[in-house]
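Researcher: Please predict.
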Amino acid sequence: MPAQRPLFPAAALALVLALTATGCGATVETSATADGKAITLTNCGRKVTYDKVPERVVTNDVGITELMFALGLEDRMAGFAMPDDKGDLSGVPWKDGYDKVPWLSKDQLTKENVLDARADLVFAGWNYGFREDGGFTPAALKKLGIPSYVLTESCRNGRTETSRGIMPPLDALYADLTNLGRLFGVEKRAATLIADFKKQVADVRAQAPAAADRPTVFLYDSGQDQPFTSGRFAAPEQIISEAGGTNVMHDLADSWTAVGWETVVERDPDVIVICDYGDVSAEQKKDFLLSYAPLRDVSAVKHRRIFVLDYVDLVESPRNPSAIARLGAYLRTVAGGA
């Protein structure tokens, strides 16, 4: 797996550095809860009330952790859990957050992690830490007196017991930034980030190919017997569409899910985007795709149109706009016949 992680465009990096220069986001503004008032947020379609501003937040996984860092909330964190297969974290704009906040576990969060850290809020998601097996759920944590916040990309939507996603992926990102801004009293910082992200996305959208020329794209996460991919509620849906492509699995009313190879062959994508993480490197995934006989007549394979994005680019995170910009530049070369 490549060691270097993708960086934000210069404008976004400048924004983050400028915001960081103002000091910890948790002290820049005053939250309603700082005056002793509870605050109620809508999370996964439910009203959730928090009695105070959390001071010892524990997060699960890289995208969720970086949402906190992007808001300047590392001083409000007691630690994070994250596998060590997420690439080089030293090049991100909020490197100082990783230096400052304890790395509690290289696996998913457990009740023991949370209790040992004396957490007063767990920020995780379904399949991003929260899970029924092992009993690590918001309901179980509530019994321990520990509140939770659920990543909006991962909200269960009721279509099946496990299907996820209740709104377009970028809306999920903006919803979480808005909610966290309110909870921690950093509304202005959240609004500035959202405005900058929307401008980055709009700039890419303005350069996108005409509708008739938009390349079709298949997101390949992992799997050989059956590929794991993205439906319309995971971040790749809008990363692809705002970049100027069309997700061939748009009709799947789920976030991350498995399909059959026959479906990929039938839909014949122009481009395959590889999600880079885990024990199988992006180069190994590419070699598999190029050598897998059932895919030999798929356009993306025939023309070797395979583009790599990092895991954190493709889950809800503050790196999504940067991913849109990079994929957009690539798709324009495909649409232009390069």
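Model: Residues 209-335 form a domain with the Rossmann fold fold (CATH 3.40.50.1980).
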